[in-house]
Amino acid sequence: MDSADIRRRFVAHFEAAGHTAVPSASLLVPDPNLLFVNAGMVPFKPYFLGQETPPWPRATSVQKCVRTPDIEDVGKTTRHGTFFEMCGNFSFGDYFKQGAIELAWDLVTKPLADGGWGLEESRLHPSVYEDDAEAVELWRKVTGLPDHRIVRLGRKENYWSMGVPGPGGPCSEILYDRGPAYGPDADLSTIGPDMPTELEDRFLEIWNLVFMQDELSAVRSKSDFDIAGPLPQRNIDTGMGLERVALLLQDKPNMYETDVVFPVIQRVEELTGRRYGADPGDDVRFRVVADHVRSSMMLIGDGVTPGNESRGYVLRRLLRRAVRSVRLLGYEEPALPELFPVSRDKMGETYGELLTDWDRISTVAYAEEDAFRQTLRTGTTIFDTAATRVKDSGGSTLPGDQAFALHDTYGFPIDLTLEMAAEAGLEVDEAGFRSLMAEQRDRAKADARSRKGQHADTGAYRGILTEHGPTEWLAYETLETESRLQAVLSGGRPVTSLAAGEVGEVVLDRTPFYAESGGQAADAGTIDFAGGTLEVLDVQRPVKGLVVHQVRVVDGELPPGAVLHARVDPEWRTGARQAHSGTHVVHAALREVLGPQALQAGSYNRPGYLRLDFGWTGGLSPAQVHDVEEVANRALRADLPVGWQYMTLPEAKEWGALALFGETYDVGQVRVVEIGGPWSRELCGGTHVDHSSQIGTIVVTGESSVGSGNRRIEAFTGVEGFAYLARERDVVGELSTLLKTRPDDLVGRVSDLVERLRSAEKEIEKARVAQLLASAGDLAAAAEDLDGVALAGQVVAGAGGGDVRTLALDVRARLAQERPGAAVVIGTGGGKPSVVVAVNDAGRAAGLSANTLVRVAVQVLGGKGGGKDDVAQGGGSDASKADEALRAVRDHLAQGRPTA
């Protein structure tokens, strides 16, 4: 049975049982606790936490998930993968334990002909939380299994929580016995409270049923927490690993050999000439490639681009591990263009966006591989320098901090450093490297803990929402409302009033203020009350349905329960509408000029200003920027109508509306804003002008990189745009007056001046170098005696390689020929050091070697060099170390060390 059929049967089974099928959410969720969706229940968290009312009593989904904490185990076990699909069924106060057990057992054991999976009952073992007698009894009742077939496990294994105070409950797992080939025999009735590690491959967990029934007041670890009491509503959350069921039904030993993953391994076999199954070490690499290629493709598909932080770093690591593993298998050409299409063809059967967005996805992935190949070249040079330094110092171990720097700064996997060190006859201080990695992980955990803290901060807002209900939000209809004060907070805590000069938060029963969202800044304005005024500084929605105003009391003292007059600054709102509609216009113009793969990745707009980030791998040319600006302003001149309407998310997608990566949309109703009909259609909740001409103008002021594969374009709109043009006009006028030329001739006039300036600088530089070259006699005369050798050394700032060589040879010719001598000249022209060493005949006869001396210098300069005994040259990457390099050569000669 292929994976698509397993997925179809799962959804059909639960739809037949009254569940609503919910499409997979994006891998990116606006959850401060998570980088990616890592479980099927994540999109349903607001329902389980009571923050939102679920639209259905029962739901089912097949959710895309990514987990990377166990990335080092990928390929080494049968179970660990970074991307997986989790099938789940959910009950929100509807059925509970018995219903969940009946539904799961029925699907697992039902014959294939009846739509089930037909797994052998004799191989199935339910596990339960050891204190959950109710679940034990239900498993006996529903399945008819004898007591010894039901496994009792402890809190660590069979109790679920979110890791923070909130809902929790016991869970039951369905284990499948894969037989003695995967682990030893065991009496499952006596194991526990933890599942022995050696049994995990044999007794494979395929489904986890969570019985959400408890309210947890404190969570110190998976097995150490406090139960405050029962939840007001009991829920069901289950997760079934699609890949695990696939390996059972396809009779495969591991998830990497299932139908949607193995084709990538086969393609790697073709590329490398190696065979999967022939060598255990190679097999791990085959699996790493297959897993990481799929995970990377799915992440890029949902809008992640490679970077050095957060989600981008995870993606970069996955891509680079995949490329590195292919190289270790013997294929050194670009590999991703060979492998990504294979994974696309399999996963695209289910996720059609992989096909429609293929140009963007492949462009991002292939550019990252190109960058990594360059990194490998650079990192190899740095490794060689470090290894040479260790050897020259008589050492045999590469320090841990250097291995960490290669990993952290240059993206060098540690296994690559280990392998290259072994080839160089060195060891690596792995303990030091691991220690630094642990420190980095601790910092990340501390950051995660601080993120979890944000979760608890919404408690006060949820309390207000529960007491007063949602805010009546009128930002689309009016700029002014008569409102009543419902709550006041100061420092996150409820207070009764605010005094003059204080800053706090207020919640009204109704508001005309737009809360910051979708890239649009919050409205500004005032809130008046009898005897005073509040200045609105910010407006947010900390929990769904509640609008909170951050205010400063301008005068008066805000009393409890005051009647208020809330008023949005109309000029501010006009500017905000212009900027937000301008953002849509620039987005559409970008896609018209560059193509549909130029897709918005983020935006920010406030009155008079907009910035838009979009996926693109190279900088835009001045002509492209000009074209974008022209297309945008033509759209303004065409006075395109701006409108919006509500529809379901599937209808919006069918209509061609663009959704933004990382945003969460209500499947049942979304707002689609269009400008000029299909020219610009986007899912958007912002405020907009009625016609494009009301934007006034769009003046592009900059285009820049904001990370690998991401560009940013910035612009002014409306009055601010005209003001920017006026400033530019004034600058042109002043320059024209200063240079005594007409504005139309200004560019030519300035170009002439710049060219003349450059010519003058070159002449000055030539004169300076000529003066230096003329000083060869003085340098030779000033040669110092080092252990019987005359050394004439000099650092020449600004001199390039040719001048350095000329000067070195000239100085050598002026040294006393009957005495051993060497000329060492280091130039720093162009910001990169170059060094030339020239040794006279007497020096060579005494055993001096220019080749040896130049290696001493380039080791300090961070580069390479070589040559013959009479003349050698080299270069480096750090011109600031030129004096240090010269001292190194001097010390080398002064110590009388072997010279060749």
Tell me about this structure:
The structure is a single chain. By secondary structure, the chain is α+β, with helices and mostly antiparallel strands. It folds into five domains: 3-257, BirA Bifunctional Protein, domain 2 (2-Layer Sandwich), CATH 3.30.930.10; 261-446; 471-568, Beta Barrel (Elongation Factor Tu (Ef-tu), domain 3), CATH 2.40.30; 573-726, Threonyl-trna Synthetase, Chain A, domain 2 (Threonyl-tRNA Synthetase, Chain A, domain 2, 2-Layer Sandwich), CATH 3.30.980.10; 762-895, Diaminopimelate Epimerase, Chain A, domain 1 (Roll). It has 26 helices and 33 strands. Strands 1, 2, 3, 4, 5, 6, 7, 8 and 9 form a nine-stranded mixed sheet that branches. A six-stranded antiparallel β-barrel has the order 13-15-19-18-17-20. Helix 8 (280-301) crosses helix 10 (336-347). The chain is globular, with a radius of gyration of 35 Å.
Q: How many helix segments?
A: 26
Superfamily (CATH H level) name of the largest domain: Bira Bifunctional Protein, Domain 2
Q: Taking Cα atoms only, what radius of gyration do you get, to the nearest Å?
A: 35 Å
Overall geometry: globular
Low-pLDDT runs of 5+ residues are 449-456
CATH topology of the largest domain: BirA Bifunctional Protein, domain 2
Main beta-sheet annotation: 9 strands, mixed
Question: Percentage of helical residues?
Answer: 40-55%
What structural class do you assign from the helix and strand content?
alpha+beta
Mean pLDDT: 89
Strand content: 15-25%
CATH architecture of the largest domain: 2-Layer Sandwich
Q: Report the top-level CATH class of the largest domain.
A: Alpha Beta
The tally of structural domains comes to 5
Alpha-carbon distance between the termini?
A: 70 Å
Number of E strands? 33
